[in-house]
Amino acid sequence: MVTKGKKTKTPPILSHEFIIQNHADIVACVAMVFVVGLMFQISSPLASVFIALHHNVSAPVEIQAGVFQDFTFYTAGVKDISAVFFYLLISIVMHAIIQEYLLDKVNKKLHLSKIKHAKFNESGQLLAFYLVSLVWGGDIILRDNLLSVSALWDGYPHNNMTFLFKFFFIIQISYWLHIFPELYFQKTKREDMSSKIQYATLYLIFITAAYMFRFTRLSLVLLVVHYLAESVFHTCRILSYTERTSISSKLFRFGDLLFVLARLSSVILAVLTFWYGLAQAPMEQQVMDLATGNFNTGLFRLNALVAVCLLQAWLMWNFIMFQVKRMREAKAFAGANAANAAKARKSEQERAKARKAKKEQEVEEDTDLPEVDQDTKKSLRQRVPARHPESVNFKNLPPTEPKTASR
User: What are the residues whose beta carbons fall under 8 Å from the beta carbon of 36, sequence distance 6 or more?
Assistant: First the structure.
């Protein structure tokens, strides 16, 4: 008898299922078109618009006392939109690579539920991006000497950026933009879409606004502080799903403290920059000039400060509500355990009372019998318990005489 193998249905070409299953390959092919275009002289100028960074300028920099040298810097411009589109494609490809070659292999070993499976994938993707951004942002802070607080507003407007500085913001905008097509590619449920759309939109609004209005230094420092707290949180969540509760419980407490400190430090840095530092500029420089990229006006600073403080207050409110919810769940879980333990104790007490009542009932029955019957019952109790009928050897039993019917 020939057994038929299990047939796998291949979805029709250009159908939704086909695009979802092969979206990484499709997007990679589209990105390769731009890369291959760099190899030909005819298409090279057009392909470089999407791949290379533009709006570069040369500016003299004092390397020693009285010695100047020209360095290449980059500014924000319209051609950045094409670069954001190309690196949006790269972000989708990298998302698929991390999912397929790292997260899916770990998920097969953990055997998580569907809800935990989705949260584990989300935390894994975000943790990888946060760690890369932390290392990258910290390197830029050290290279550009942004460790002093006054460097956040000195020399505003901050039009000139190094290659790594500008590329950092292009990648940030591209990554948070790629969240929206990933909702379709990952078949995200409707109830989970709102939270992802919400935080991706907030990231896009604040990062793009800081990039356009030349507040890149402050934005870089705030992103590094925020990503540090978020990376600890997602690390704890991954450890809890891998049943490393002893480590994750301690890290959760450290992450909670770090989150509060991140919110506090973000508000302090925003107040120092918008309320104190930029206000020290001469009055003739506190004007809005689109040509020079100057947005240092009192009204603009106030709106920016209010926006940052409202965002931090909203994040803190969500954090407090999350902690309250977790405390209630822990209290309810502890109450349920206590109730189960009390129920178990009560059942044990009832069994003990039943055994005691049974013994008392047997004693009362013995006292009601005559003295001869009481001695007989005691002797019967002291005998060995009767064996199972199957274990008895009937061959060794003495023969019994047949009873005669009485007339």
Answer: 47
